[in-house]
Fold each of these.
Amino acid sequence: MNLVKHTGGCHCGAVRFQVWNSPDLHVFHCNCSICTKKQNHHFVVPKSQFTLLKGSENLTMYTFNTHVAKHSFCKICGVQSFYTPRSNPDGYGIAPHCLDPGTVHSVTIEKFCGEKWEESMQAHRSIRDMSKPVADTQLTKQNNTIDK
């Protein structure tokens, strides 16, 4: 798998991050209560592929119910550009619409029934693996890509 470095952040620029992921994004559209309210779409990456570049002091967090998901957002502009999803507490959910232009080739959207979260997690065969680091990663800084 070929990975590229995506950069992004919130609306006001106080929070900035980089993430290594495929240029072809697999994005989840969840219909749980909070994702519906904020129209959350996200793709999942391992923590090792995410770097917060600036703005930790500008992040605030909201949790509810099981408190496993950590909904972080900029306390200046209110935008959530990434968060820790309940499905993948060992990774991050990245909002594709918060990425800077130029690195995304395609987006595939998969609906996820968050209204029936437990059933959906049992039925989904690969979502938990999306936050697991892939072995044998070789970083090629010259190309700004990672080949797997």
Note: The chain has a mean pLDDT of 85.
Amino acid sequence: PVSGVSLAAQPPGGQVAEGEHLVLGCSVAAGTGPLSFSWHRQGSAAPLATGPRYELRAAQHWDGGRYHCTATDGDTTADSPPLWVTVL
């Protein structure tokens, strides 16, 4: 089973100036087999993207909000804790 899903931001803390580059990364502490990742923002039903990284090349004010990633191995699914992204 997938467990220990974590989300990291660059710059750390998820604070970014408008127009700057933000990278979010998703990782798991445990999981077997091929893993797939999806990215979600609170208030958006459809996933924003798939894959272990999510990039905002030029962050805008409307990109701010609560993000999390979901990891699955096909059998089990686990979510990361949420990260609040702030665009200054």
Note: The mean pLDDT is 95.
Amino acid sequence: MAASSNSSLSGSSVSSDPEDYQPPIWKSYLYQLQQEAPRPKRITCPQEMESRPKYYGREFHGVISREFADELLGGAEGSYLIRESQRQPGTHTLALRFGHQTLNYRLFYDGKHFVGEKRFESVHDLVTDALITLYIETKAAEYIAKMTTNPIYEHLGYTSLLKDKTVHRLSRGRTEPRRVTFQRDERISSPVVRRSALKDTPEKHCSYEKIHNFKVHTFRGPHWCEYCANFMWGLIAQGVRCSDCGLNVHKQCSKLVPSDCQPDLRRIKKVFSCDLTTLVKAHNTTRPMVVDICIREIELRGMKSEGLYRVSGFSEHIEDVRLAFDRDGEKADISASAYADINIIAGALKLYLRDLPIPVITFDLYSKFIQAAKLPNAESRLEGIHEGLLQLPPAHYETLRYLMAHLKRVTMFEKDNLMNAENLGIVFGPTLMQPPEQNALATLNDMRQQKLVVQLMIEHEDVLF
């Protein structure tokens, strides 16, 4: 969902276009409280302090006691000053009057002023934000605790209008993961038989779920939470925004938002090194278009190329292909007229898969696949790999399924390209699988298992997928 300003107190009625939809009402209670919060009143020192740090102003009073600071503040709500600690010279304390008492905070500076997580350009801004937060959390503690219990999120139409449309599109083009039972056939000598008994009920739903990529955000002007419809209070860092779809919510509300992020193409700045699920949801495809386009080109003119995927193309030209996809997306030209050497296209596909922030075989399932490859029994190995495949995120599963079907076709031209399943396993093992902790020794020790996992997926592609 594209980010939209919600700086008014009311919105329009439901629109059939999710881009135009606004909630019927924004709750104004917290906004009104922010307007009522005490304003900062700086208590200045009447004399010039030689010990005053250059990043403080006349609010710095040097070394004074808590009692004297309290006296200087005079009981006025919102009044503040900075003093140097008597007990710890060189450390500074913000004395702030709120709730008929003086609050003392250890004050820090590292280029910006802070007492907690938020960092401010000036002490005045810090005090303004503190007074707003203290006032709202004092006056509306019970309201804030309950504000997530009646969310408007479903009413936004975000899930119903965007997610349903996407799932409908994806459901038409995706092969459903299926549970397979590997079994022996006594009439055949091979210990692993490429026959399977399929269960009637699919083991995995067709749903490309994606969690939101929330990051702390400072909103300019009044903004309301798109989950609970309440005002996002404070001067800076009032809430979080999903960097992929633009959803704006309170930090506490972000923990309750469903995993239904629908990335906005305008926010996806590149194709390579972009999260796999984010990319396919942004483009509304079943697989990354890089995979589809590269494989299509390779199968068109490169299946008989000797050493396909093993022979490297020129790195400068591979980088050109990467830049073309990042710049032009699905319109990138990788035809023979642009890149005559098919190894450049094969190299670009490997680079794309290798640069994924989360590998095709995800970090959390890496050890499951490695352990499956170590099993002594051939049938158990296939069972273990299949169990791992069923746990992959849907976009990762579909990408791997499509890639393995392609690599299986590559092996059919082994007489010309000299690439069998084992050779392709050596190439694609470390490309598709990476240990969670980047440990060179662990990677070296697992290379045999990485190769075997990919080799078995190619050889048994029709059963495993």
Note: The mean pLDDT is 84.
Amino acid sequence: MSGPGGRAALALQLLLLGLPQARPRYEPTWGSLDARPLPAWFDEAKFGVFIHWGVFSVPSFGSEWFWWYWQKEKREPYVKFMDANYPPGFSYEDFGPLFTAEFFDPNQWADILKASGAKYVVLTSKHHEGFTLWESKYSWNWNAVDVGPKRDLVAELATSVRNRTDLHFGLYHSLFEWFNPLFLEDATNAFNTSKFPTSKSLPELYEIVTKYQPEIIWSDGDGNAPDTYWNSTGFLAWLYNDSPVRDTVVTNDRWGAGSICAHGGFYTCSDRYNPGRLLPHKWENCMTIDRGSWGYRRDARLRDYLPIEDLVKQLVETVSCGGNLLMNIGPTHDGRIAVVFEERLRQVGSWLEVNGEAIYGTKPWRAQNDTVTPGVWYTFTPKEGKVNAIFLNWPVSGILELGEPQAKPGETQVKLAGYKELLKWVALGEKGMVISLPQLTPQQMPCQWGWTLQLTDVD
């Protein structure tokens, strides 16, 4: 059997027999790599937790960009903080041994992550400071096994997450390092030399994929260098073709200057990206519970932490518009998830216990938000054919008017998630419908902060 027709017939026979066909090979070009379908689990997951943890958690002042703001930009609050609290000549490297993680209990972290309702977690394996949370062969004496905790923090959390939860485990990795001499030398050469990616950044990426098999590679920090300097397409071709996670791994869009919001797997576009409209490409809103920092801050005030109402609102808006929400916490230098972060995560989890059917595995509906009543966002559950109307404000009148769904008399059913009885409604034709909500005491409410109406047989 030869020729195109013969090969097509053979492929059809293999398909009918259920035999696996050869997987596609991706070329190290954006045209080829961008054509790879995003593994389905990521869109279905909807909600993940970001963890920013590193040596910056020791000063835990101002921002995880502490080293840069103190030494490079010499911002006054950071200089004053160091002058007031540390002896002359104290260097950022001296914070390394103080990153102790003595209270780090990966099982406890995994249990909190599970309780949050998140379906994936992304840990900073290495931030721009260059300190690796694993025993890297390429970060001698500046990693968590040689300095500080004397523990492989990546391995421990990966093991606990996989043993105790159904979350997908992912790793953040910074391409550049602020003060690495090899990177600074390449930058001086206008990135016409590539000593740093060849000897440091790329070997680390291959190392974490091979050792820990993360299902998310969350790249960041291009240092204003193009993707050709980082050889991002070469790494991604290996990741998609030959790595141990080639079938399930997802990646973001931060692979070199000009790639963000244009190339890669899902798009992040910017930190705290929340466009409020449907986008044609899968995207993620990575945001922080602490408005002012990704890393833990000892100087944070209660007002700096987003309340649970805002977090639910961000989750609902993001998912309605086709995105995933990646909600960040910053643990302490001694390995604790601060109780304010734990409380917020558990609150989100309790809300998802009631309303998860309107979030997980959903698709965007024809309308993202309601045209009549503000604070109403829609998702669609394909399996049951249900439209979910998530409303963030319970009307005092007990009557909710929806301008988008068009009800069918005698067919449409309306249910409040977490409440047993069907709700009464009146059709307004093309102008939508009016729904009568049950009269409930606060104790009878199925949840707080936002509620889901499940609509069946509506247009």
Note: The longest strand covers residues 120-126.
